[in-house]
Description:
The chain is of the alpha/beta class. It has helices spanning 22-29, 41-44, 47-58, 74-87, 98-111, 118-122, 185-203, 211-233, 238-251, 265-277, 281-296, 302-313, 321-338, 355-366, 377-386; strands at residues 11-14, 33-37, 62-65, 91-96, 133-137, 149-154, 159-164, 172-175. The strands form two sheets. It has a six-stranded parallel β-sheet, sandwiched between helices.
Amino acid sequence: MLNFTHHIPTIVYFGKGQVSALEPELKKRAGKVLIVTGQGSVKKNGIFNHVIRQVKKADVPYVELSGIKPNPRLKSVYRGIEICKKESVDFILAVGGGSVIDASKAIASGVKYDGDVWDFFAGDVKPTDALPVGTVLTLAATGSEMNGNTVITKEDTMRKLAFGSPVIRPVFSILDPEYTYTVNKYHTAAGVVDIMVHVFEQYFSHTPASDVQDRIAEALLKVCVKYGPIVCEKLHDYDARANLLWTGSLALNDLIGQGKQEDWASHAIEHELSAIYDISHGAGLAIVSPNWMRYVLSRNTVHKFVEYGIKVWNIEKDRSEMDIANEAIHRTEKFFKSLGMPTTLKEVNISDEHFEKMAKSAIEDWGEIGSFKKLTEKDIVQILNASL
Ligand code: NZQ
Ligand code: ZN
């Protein structure tokens, strides 16, 4: 295990009716709030009304920014920064999924910076300050509610880039499983895939003796395997929603990646797909991740796939190592398919037209991508070709 500092300060209010925590939290922290929402789901399903009731109880003035798109765009971030400056906002409340939270975090950092907020994504500058962000999460997937990451697309160049900083980690997050009941089957399944691939990115590593992180990681994966099919069958299953919601937060809040070399190649490749084709992030991962697994499987990496196959998929130990590894990858892909996710690029109408460009861009953004197996531009093109 490598050295690490563990500091995850986000307060999580988890469970039914926890929106009531908003009133005291806002009273304590906010002078004027910007409430950020997506394309209308929270207004249709009543969550927005619950939030407004709390904001009014707290007696804190607010302004709104609605219409944040999935794969959020830089333009909406600029708009949010402008509103915050004009209205002297000192607190941002994100009500939505990862896209709304990511846009809110980017706005929060941009308000405190004199230059262009895109500088943070381009990697030119690191933010040193941000407005505090609180979240009311409505979709189990990204872990954005408990981490310091944001991912934004710059629409004129179609670059989708991320940055991470402790200054944008939410100060509190409200996680009510019932608030995720109205997420449709497709986005629910995409969320399950995203959670699982977050775990893979941290689990598939050469760092030795990280048993604590890895056993937690396997437990998180098993929860997805157990509850993914249940929730896709019955969208209002409280136990399934609750377990997936908490799993999503724990899968990407620094816990299981602490003290480990992480990979993140599947994400780097997927971000190229959703940047150009605007597909759901989880759907892109369902296509890329099993093909990444097949590509990186070798004598040098097989031990980790064996561990994964036996611990998560209960594959018989007496089979050969390569056999167990291939079976584990096959079951992963079959599982994604069973949830209704695409597992080929053809299913989402993507051809090989931009493969070279995407591979170049992925390398540019992340330097050398992957650590479990380092990938070059040529490797990325091969993984994309295998995903056709
Ligand atoms: O726009 P609205 O109306 O809110 O509808 C959304 C959207 O259409 C809908 N939705 C959300 N909650 C709902 C709901 N519909 C009904 N009932 C509810 N309760 O679901 C759709 C997808 O929402 P979105 O926020 O885009 O999904 P997700 O949470 O998966 O976020 C995806 C974005 O996060 C980035 C992805 O790249 C993508 O841009 N990621 C962020 C990460 C992070 N910050 O740590 C890490 C991830 O790896 C990922 O890259
Ligand atoms: Zn992801």
